[in-house]
Each structure stands twice: as structure tokens, then as C-alpha cells.
TrEMBL record:
Keywords: Transferase. It comes from the Bacteria. One of its GO terms (molecular function) is transferase activity. It comes from Solidesulfovibrio carbinolicus. This is tRNA (Adenosine(37)-N6)-threonylcarbamoyltransferase complex dimerization subunit type 1 TsaB.
Length: 256
């Protein structure tokens, strides 16, 4: 990614499709921000473009007038990430607006840090009995205490509990609610933030977008684990009378 930070004084557009609900946000830090949500389970491709158009119209800005375009690159829904990044890249190139990638877990932690001090652990649902997890120290600034990981729930609960060593422990994200008993068993004194913290706030999105690295090259997705199709490729291939090697070859051919 080219280093074009910060973007110009124009408004910033942020796309977040890592969860079943889509979020599109437009504005600048400290100014009025348009922040809109749409349910899109299984319909990301058909819902995203109209939502972007609606937000831009409400913000009173045309695509070419944007100062920058940021897209949350994961971890989260594989389909949502792919659709959002492709849509963002098309808009970036078509409107000649630089593009940046944002990571979801730091955005959740930054949203929680508006209320929390101490250790903030962002935890989101990853399917297949796993969660995505990253721990942060919130003490004025927000500092990561490790890289994001995809973990089994029991390991994630133990990892989250380790955060109590640096101060009060705050847990945020939809993965906490889904496996609440496991996390409370490992860290009974942890504060679990409610569902209103399960999506990044407009302030967190704008603050991250205004300091991101922008350019005109594709943003790399952040997946952290193989997709369900990749994990089940042997079974899928056998059902179709193929070897894994043949299935992988067909996938590569289809992507060329």
C-alpha cells in the first residue's frame, strides 16, 4: 500500500462488512458523520452498493470528492470481506480516490476504550467453534498486547483471562455473548460490554480512517483461518468424484 497518509480534507468513506450487518460511514473526525446499517445476511453483494449510494447522498458528497476510502479487511465474514474489498477497489479506481484497509479487532477495542481502562480483549465469532481474539492495553493510548488469532473457545477464554494481569479486564465483541459462560468461568471478574459495543463506533472508524495508509493498490484481506470450503475441501471433492488435487486445480483455473 502506498503511503498517502493523511488523505486530503475531503470526507472519508468507511465500509464494514465483516459481520452479517453492513455498516457504511461517511464524514471526518470532529464533524457530522453519517453512519448507516443494513441487514445483509446472504445478500451482501446486492445490499452494499445501494447503502453506499444512500450514505454518500445523505453526506452530500460525490465519490470523486472523497478524501479517502477505507474498508475493514477482517477478520470476519469471508463473503462480506471479499465483496466489500472488491466494491471499495472499484469505487477507488473509478473515482480516483485512495483506499486503505482497517482491522476490525482494534476498531472494537477502540470503541470499548471510550469507556474502559486496563485490558480490553476484542473477541468475535469465527464459526467452527472458534473466535477471533486480540488483547489491548487501554491506558490513554490503545496498545496491542499480541497479534490477532483464531482460537478454540477454551484457549481463547484462557488467553482473555491473562489480560487481568495488567488491570481491570473488559471483554467486547459478539464472540463473548455467544460463549459467555466459558469466558466468565475463566475470568469471573471481567466486565462484559453489551451488544451496543459489538460494532465499531463512528468515532473509532473515523479516527482509524484519518490515520490509515492510503494508496491505489488492492487491500489484502485479513482472514486468520481457512474458509469453511477450504477446511471441507476433501469432503466436497469426494462428493463430486474428484481428488483434492483436482479440486484445487479447478479452483485455480476458475480464479485466473
Amino acid at each position: 500500500m502506498d503511503k498517502l497518509t493523511p488523505p486530503g480534507s475531503g470526507k472519508l468513506l468507511v465500509i464494514n462488512a465483516v459481520a452479517p450487518a453492513l455498516w457504511v460511514t461517511c464524514g471526518r473526525p470532529g464533524q457530522d458523520v453519517v453512519h448507516r446499517r443494513a441487514e445483509a445476511t446472504g445478500r451482501c453483494a446486492e445490499v452494499l452498493a445501494p447503502l453506499i449510494a444512500e450514505v454518500l447522498a445523505e453526506a452530500g458528497v460525490r465519490p470523486a470528492e472523497l478524501g479517502g476510502l477505507a474498508c475493514v479487511r477482517g477478520p470476519g465474514s469471508f463473503t462480506g470481506i471479499r465483496v466489500a474489498l472488491a466494491t471499495a477497489l472499484g469505487l477507488s479506481l473509478g473515482a480516483n480516490v485512495p483506499m486503505a484497509g482497517l482491522d476490525h479487532l482494534p476498531l472494537l477495542a477502540a470503541t470499548a476504550a471510550a469507556k474502559a481502562t486496563g485490558a480490553v480483549v476484542a473477541i468475535t465469532h469465527a464459526r467452527a467453534g472458534q473466535v477471533y481474539l486480540q488483547s489491548f492495553l487501554a491506558d490513554g493510548d490503545l496498545m496491542p498486547m499480541g497479534a490477532p488469532k483464531a482460537l478454540a473457545v477454551a484457549e481463547a477464554a484462557a488467553r482473555a483471562a491473562d489480560g487481568a494481569a495488567v488491570g481491570p479486564l473488559w471483554l467486547v465483541g459478539d464472540g463473548v455473548a455467544r460463549y459467555r459462560d466459558a469466558f466468565l468461568a475463566a475470568a469471573p471478574l471481567a466486565v462484559i460490554l453489551g451488544p451496543e459495543f459489538d460494532s465499531p463506533s463512528p468515532a473509532a472508524l473515523m479516527a482509524a480512517a484519518v490515520t490509515a495508509d492510503y494508496g491505489f493498490t488492492p487491500v489484502e484481506p485479513l482472514y486468520l483461518r481457512p474458509s469453511d470450503a477450504e477446511e471441507n475441501l476433501d469432503a466436497i471433492a469426494a462428493h463430486r468424484g474428484l481428488t483434492r488435487h483436482d479440486a484445487e486445480a479447478r479452483i485455480r483455473q476458475a480464479m485466473e
